[in-house]
Amino acid sequence: MLDTGVIGQLKFSSVALARQYMKRIAKELESSGPVQDDDLLIQGVRFAYRVHQFAGGFDADTLLAFEELRRFCTTGPTQ
């Protein structure tokens, strides 16, 4: 069965929401300095994972936002 119509739009909108959410979290982490509270980061990654599972993957822009969150996990914010 093809994902068309309402289901396809729902998946596309979910990916767009995940992208915006991850960008917002990245901005908050960047403005707060070193990552002191991992709860926000973990919440963002969990939400992104759930959307990824629901939608069947990310588009290129959402992958870039996810990579930015991953960079916070490994190195902290860029300054």
Automatic annotation (TrEMBL):
<dbReference type="GO" id="GO:0072699">
    <property type="term" value="P:protein localization to cortical microtubule cytoskeleton"/>
</dbReference>
<dbReference type="GO" id="GO:0055028">
    <property type="term" value="C:cortical microtubule"/>
</dbReference>
<keyword id="KW-0175">Coiled coil</keyword>
<protein>
    <submittedName>
        <fullName>Uncharacterized protein</fullName>
    </submittedName>
</protein>
<dbReference type="InterPro" id="IPR040265">
    <property type="entry name" value="CHUP1/IPGA1-like"/>
</dbReference>
